[in-house]
Task: inverse folding
């Protein structure tokens, strides 16, 4: 499985198979290409270190670990590689890569005879929890003659046991089967450990590679070299499986299909593959009395608890998926261009799958949950200050989804399982949501109280569900009391940007708390409760302006912390004022910051604050959304340029150096995080 350099060298040397000009990228070359990205465990990418060229490169899990996934095509008896790093057939020539919000589309030239198009479709259904509950993705392979002549074509795909276990010493088992005109290869880790992970990969569940029956379909399960050589040498597979179950890395068992497409001339011929994971129970959640209980996958309610019904339904739903996702792609592109131009569309389209790829849908149709994994930073579950930067994507696509994310946090804390008076930071480590009965979570008290109040009001505003605020009013008021005590002059504490360390009197953190109080005033009025928050918020805002703004600077700006006139930072928390339509913070503050950002911008971004040259792309977009046009364009143009030029080579990071565009030197490496939902900050604002 580990022969990446072999094919890379062949690709560099070229051959007689049509290696020519470099691949074209539309709308740009991304840091990494989403291939199959539907959940925290189905999360495979083509990393940018390959130049985003698929032939000769192994797809990788978001961690960077290889997930064996090999593709071949044979034309007139000669086999070529269109995906994967296995030795053997030489690579096809990649002509182009195009990404949309839900698709990654590769076009290849095969020996100047066949145009091969491979589309990786990871659907996102913001309005359909049934379809979104499945951890499956599509791959379609389409062949067409490019020279007008007729050519015999066969296509091949396999996956390895690496998908089923993050520990390659663990044994995998397998089987072949058919169901309703569908052929499937099922494989799973022999030692199933529910709610456990190995190197971030689930240690439980069943994986399925499936394809529809057509004349010329063959399959094989066996050692990687044996199966792949069988196709390369014979252009077909043996319809057989090895009987000896074994560890992932022992003679590397792979699970393969081949389709003989026959003679290709005038018409395109397409074959569809699906790949995904079935898990019955998906989350361990302490709802009441600190007792962990399994929460079923939401899919089970819709598919009669049947793996096969789910697998077959997903495959048969392909045409609907294509039509629905084309509409969603068009909607996001159109709305993004209208809001801020082509460069903004370039950013939002790359963020959709990454954001939804961090979610696990659970529960029942009557009580659905969405559990979030804080991918790559520490794997926390339901991190409030990760939900908050992602929140614009829910407000834009379907605000009801935000309730499914907030519900587990409310349920756990309202059960009395969390002792602190401020809001809990997270619920544990994914996939175990046990909470912190001793109150020993990572303390971000002002941050999380403000976040929970702001998000709750935003949900109610966009859905009209003020009853939600009534139900949760007691704990919301409890958190608001904390804001009264701490938001004007914040104690030494962490904010969401915890990598920067603790700091007292944080200007940006303070304004979040003050806006949170103003939001609580709205909540009190909407729920017919006494409003004890409006006057306090207005008084605090007046004092905050005196504490926070360096009027002596040219141009004036807010400081990072009160009194530190040599400091500054992005005041991204004022975005919440506009998201909620409060118009509480003076327009002069927005304009002042907007003018100031132009004077401190670096090559790729405005630094988060004066402690580093690091930038956070989610907060860049929060600031852009409420800035003057010139400043908004500056933020967006710089981030779009970064997307196409960054030397980071994994799923899009939200933390990078604003000068070099690389990962921050000495800082954390964030990849594939759902905070990229913040790219939709402009689209989430209420219509004026």
Result:
């Amino acid at each position: 499985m580990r022969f990446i350099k072999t094919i890379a060298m062949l690709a560099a040397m070229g051959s007689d198979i049509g290696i020519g000009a470099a691949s074209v990228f539309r709308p740009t070359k991304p840091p990494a290409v989403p291939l199959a990205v539907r959940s925290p465990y189905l999360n495979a990418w083509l990393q940018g270190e390959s130049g985003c060229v698929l032939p000769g490169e192994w797809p990788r899990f978001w961690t960077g670990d290889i997930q064996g996934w090999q593709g071949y095509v044979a034309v007139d008896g000669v086999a070529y590689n269109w995906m994967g790093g296995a030795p053997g057939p030489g690579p096809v020539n990649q002509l182009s890569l195009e990404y949309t919000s839900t698709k990654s589309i590769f076009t290849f030239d095969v020996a100047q005879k066949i145009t091969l198009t491979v589309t990786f479709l990871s659907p996102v259904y913001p309005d359909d929890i049934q379809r979104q509950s499945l951890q499956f993705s599509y791959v379609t392979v389409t062949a067409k003659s490019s020279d007008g002549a007729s050519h015999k074509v066969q296509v091949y795909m396999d996956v390895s046991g690496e998908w089923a276990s993050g520990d390659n010493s663990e044994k995998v088992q397998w089987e072949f089967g058919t169901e309703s005109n569908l052929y499937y290869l099922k494989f799973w880790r022999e030692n199933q450990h529910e709610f456990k992970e190995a190197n971030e990969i689930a240690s439980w569940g069943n994986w399925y590679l499936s394809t529809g029956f057509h004349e010329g379909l063959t399959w094989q399960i066996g050692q990687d070299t044996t199966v792949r050589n069988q196709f390369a040498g014979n252009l077909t597979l043996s319809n057989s499986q090895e009987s000896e179950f074994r560890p992932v890395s022992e003679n590397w068992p792979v699970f393969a299909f081949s389709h003989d497409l026959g003679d290709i001339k005038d018409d395109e011929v397409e074959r569809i593959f699906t790949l995904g994971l079935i898990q019955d129970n998906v989350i361990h959640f302490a709802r009441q009395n600190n007792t962990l209980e399994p929460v079923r996958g939401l899919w089970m309610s819709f598919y009669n608890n049947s793996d096969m019904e789910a697998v077959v339904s997903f495959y048969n739903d392909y045409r609907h998926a294509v039509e629905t996702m084309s509409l969603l792609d068009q909607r996001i592109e159109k709305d993004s261009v209208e809001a801020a131009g082509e460069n903004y569309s370039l950013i939002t389209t790359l963020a959709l799958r990454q954001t939804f790829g961090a979610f696990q849908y659970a529960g029942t149709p009557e009580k659905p949950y969405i559990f979030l994994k804080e991918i790559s930073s520490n794997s926390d579950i339901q991190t409030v200050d990760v939900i908050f930067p992602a929140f614009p994507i829910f407000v834009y696509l379907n605000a009801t989804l935000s309730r499914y994310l907030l519900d587990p946090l409310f349920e756990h804390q309202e059960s009395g399982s969390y002792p602190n008076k401020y809001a809990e930071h997270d619920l544990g480590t994914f996939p175990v949501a046990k909470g912190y009965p001793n109150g020993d979570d990572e303390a971000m008290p002002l941050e999380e109280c403000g976040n929970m109040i702001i998000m709750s009001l935003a949900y109610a505003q966009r859905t009209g569900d003020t009853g939600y605020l009534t139900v949760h009013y007691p704990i919301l008021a409890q958190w608001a009391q904390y804001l009264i005590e701490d938001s004007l002059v914040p104690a030494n504490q962490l904010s969401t940007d915890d990598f920067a360390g603790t700091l007292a009197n944080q200007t940006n953190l303070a304004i979040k708390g003050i806006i949170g109080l103003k939001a609580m005033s709205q909540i009190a009025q909407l729920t017919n409760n006494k409003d004890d928050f409006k006057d306090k918020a207005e008084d605090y805002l007046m004092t905050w302006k005196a504490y926070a703004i360096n009027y002596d600077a040219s141009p004036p700006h807010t400081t990072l912390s009160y009194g530190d006139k040599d400091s500054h930072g992005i005041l991204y928390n004022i975005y919440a004022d506009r998201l909620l339509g409060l118009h509480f913070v003076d327009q002069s503050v927005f304009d002042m910051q907007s003018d100031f950002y132009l004077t401190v911008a670096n090559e790729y971004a405005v630094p988060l604050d004066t402690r580093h040259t690091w930038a956070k792309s989610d907060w860049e977009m929060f600031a852009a959304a409420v800035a003057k046009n010139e400043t908004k364009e500056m933020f967006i143009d710089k981030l779009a340029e970064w997307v196409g030029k960054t030397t980071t080579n994994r799923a899009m990071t939200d933390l990078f150096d604003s000068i070099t565009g690389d990962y921050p030197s000495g800082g954390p490496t964030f990849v594939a995080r759902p905070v990229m939902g913040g790219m939709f900050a402009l689209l989430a604002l209420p219509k004026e």
Observations:
- The chain has 19 helices and 30 strands.
